[in-house]
Specification:
5-stranded antiparallel sheet, mainly beta, 50 residues
Length: 50
């Protein structure tokens, strides 16, 4: 299923971070949370990467 999801800001692929339960977009510098098994693909809800 991960192959079907892309970053809403850059339209690039995402990497799954199992430890943090996030989908990471290196291109955008954002990490989208996964809550209750559902990815929250909203830029406003994403965490900015360090």
């Amino acid at each position: 299923m991960l192959e079907a999801l892309v970053c809403p800001r850059t339209q690039t692929t995402l990497r799954y971070d199992a430890d943090r339960q996030e989908l990471v977009s290196k291109a955008a510098g954002l990490a989208y949370p996964i809550r209750n098994g559902i990815p929250v693909m909203l830029v406003d809800e994403a965490r900015v990467l360090d």
